[in-house]
Model the fold of this input.
Amino acid sequence: MNGTGEGGRIDPADWDSFGEELHGLLDDCLTRLSTARAHHWQEPPADMAARVALDGPPISMEGLREILTRDVMPFGTTHTHPKFWGWVHGTGMAQALASEMVGVAMNANLGGRHQGAVEVERAVVDWCARTAGLPSEAFGIIVSGTSQATVLAIASARIAAFGTRIREAGIAGLPPLRVYIAEGGHSCVDKALQLLGHGSKALRTIPVERESGAMDTDALRAAIAEDRAAGVHPFMIVGTAGSVNLGTYDDFPALADVAEAEGMWLHIDAAFGFWTRIAPGPIRLLTDGIERADSIAADFHKWMAVPYACGICLVRDGARLTETFKSRPDYLAQAGAGLAAGDLWFCDYGMELSRGFLGLKVWCALRAVGAERLGQVIADNCRQAQLMGALAEAAAEFDLVRPVVSNLCVFAPRVGDAEAMVARLQLEGRGVFSTTRVDGRVCFRAAIVNHRTTEADIREAMAAAAEVAR
Ligand SMILES: *Cc1c(COP(=O)(O)O)cnc(C)c1O
Done:
């Protein structure tokens, strides 16, 4: 659609017809979501690249709507489907259409300035800190996910250990650092250490206890003592709340005791497992002791059903974040009045200056659905994983390779190629598992973080899996 000249080159020339098409597109989105069960993953069409090639003149809103609904919307990973359990893909929620629309209408930039929208994000961060059980001086920042939150947490821990002088001097004068993580810990910690200049060699993997899958704290203590004797600085323990492979949880009170005794920072990767804090019943116990962490990374976009990309970095002493990241050149100076006032500029708490209104989608989820119902989904998913485990154990075709601890289930076919079986189920639209390797065996892996899944879905998919295995 052509603009009408200066000051009007981008706004729709006709708001009425634009609005009509946009309302239609919203209806298309609602239809897509209300019929999520009818849309499973399909292979991208052979001409996908041609369909979305950036050529030709600008198109009308009508044309845009057509391309978006026909050529874009159907061809994602489709983890909106109730039988999607691969990797750890959150399902999202329709209510977020509201937060996304409002965020765009405001064109919100939550980096700073004196604006009421900041209070929405403050409310979300405070709610998360309270949910964790952290003290009142805890604070944090909403970021794109746990990978980014981990970078911020490690950078803050470094300032806590060595002081703000390293912001100028860098890390060249520091002793070699060591970070300890249980076997099966997520690769985002390794990546963060690479980015921050310590390299993968700074990471030491500690074995886990066979039964619980939790980090072996005796082995941890021994590793710390050995490193200290060798002149390496034991710097941080990374606990895991919900390991990506097996859904296991470390013993946080035990890790906190070691961190305290050794003067180390305790960070917890709680990407999805954090939300067991809001679940009813015994599942909540899995994260007991998380309140003793110095920092926590968690995702809203997995088990909280907030759409991508959205996570949080929480720090026990919130001031560590500003000590690490606050930087206010003249063009960002604080003022006592006007837009440059305001007591909370999130650019002081992380790397990004310009930030979208990530907190709004979490706020909408909490207002529109509420923590209680979100917590019930978490309990449902854990029960469904138990059922899947029981069905795998009972099936002649499969071995359950580990007991189900939370929402993850890992089982292996007795004969045949698990990878081919998983791909076939995906291609036939009969359920999405991913694969992993446990004890050298390639396994089916389900990480259930899906509010649309029912017990019947689990039974059907397991029957389909058995059929394919035969
Ligand atoms: C997904 C995940 C991460 C990485 O989080 P992103 O939000 O994808 O950056 C880290 N740790 C665990 C346990 C995860 O499941």
Observations:
- The first helix runs from residue 15 to 34.
- Residues 114 and 338 are 7 Å apart (CA to CA).
- The mean pLDDT is 97.
